[in-house]
Amino acid sequence: MEGTRGTMAVDWEERIDVKRLREERRERALERMDEAGLGAMLLLDDPNIRYVTGLAMTGGSGADHYSLLLEDGQVVHWDTADHASNQRFNCPWLADVRYACPALGNVPRASGRDSAREFLLETMAEGVASALEEYGYAKEPVGIDVGHAGLHDALESQGVDLRPAECAAVMEDARKTKTRDEIECLRQVAAICEAGFQAIKNEAEPGKRESEVWGDAVRELWRHGAMAQGGYLTSGPNTWPKHQANTTDRMIRPGDLVYADFYNIGYLGYRSCYYRTFSMGEPTQEQRDAYETARDNLYDVLERIEPGATTDDIARGFPDMEGEHADFYDADEHWQLTTNHWAHGLGLQLYEVPLVWRGLSPDHPIEIEEGMTMAVETQEPAGRQGVRVEEMVVVRENGVEVLSQWPVEEITRIDY
């Protein structure tokens, strides 16, 4: 495909094939599971559940939904009563949907009784063990993707041969490179974010509050079918350093820098992370210089990314401690400057493999693979304000393809 198409289903053009998306993801997980010698995996982490089931998990109160992926490709899924009833009706690719026992999270915490918590853990473990017995996997090694000691003990007391370390490695390996449909989901969410940037350009003006302009942008995101589960817009002195409250009721003024961070905007579950900076009127030379520095730092990193490159070499494209303005933060080590300059994987979660960061990569490098998707972000102060810029990319055979398309050469100027 390699080109943004519409968000609706049509019969006259190939678009994102959601059936193929589900099936190819599940096959990847099954291949890695077989290589790890597992007969089944119990998944409680929402992105992992969505990866193998296609269910739009949106958080929840704990282990009120979980899935068992079996070696032969069958899935047993447990969920709350209402969700399970809907899934039985709407998800014909799931043949076995059962009612969940919420043994982790808010329900046991709010129960106030250790006996209640033990009951929930035992009931959940009995249900999982029963399903393994029913499908003929009772004696097979079973992976699990959460490190909850109580749940582990409850499952093992049911005779489950639990293998937590293997499951984490299986799902990490399956998800770190993306299928063609996953890549198109990320391209599509980038396009939706650009509609949000345009709304900001259209609506921002002196006297409007940050929260009002952000509301205009989020309305546009939802209009295009996105799920907005994060992001913010800040202005003026709130742009450096990043404001702890994110979007506020501050009025935008002439001469302000404004930046928007569209992170955790989801399309079919695939998450964006996409910064752009705007100027209210003509930017000053100081603001132009800061933007040029941030943009050049970003593209220095992008030019280093290709299959076979390692994250320690790539991280050298990010600023050193002087370029990080460590004196401003009174910082001595790169690890103290989390999120300022780094690249992180994108997918069903905001942070997936790989991570490229001077705080870790020099001593703990990993190799870049074709098909990885990531966001690369930089920032730079401009007096009492600051600029941020970020691109979403996919690793191709000879480098990166930039999925984000909002103009990056200069600050976007907003005339009013």
Automatic annotation (TrEMBL):
Its domain of life? Archaea
Residue ranges annotated for the Creatinase N-terminal domain, each copy included: 25-175
What InterPro entries does this protein map onto? Answer: Creatin/AminoP/Spt16_N (IPR029149), Creatinase/aminopeptidase-like (IPR036005), Creatinase_N (IPR000587), Pept_M24 (IPR000994), Peptidase_M24B (IPR050659)
Q: Name one Pfam family in it.
A: Peptidase_M24
| Coiled-coil parts of chain | none
Outline the extent of the Peptidase M24 domain: 184-397
**What is the name of the protein in this document?**
M24 family metallopeptidase
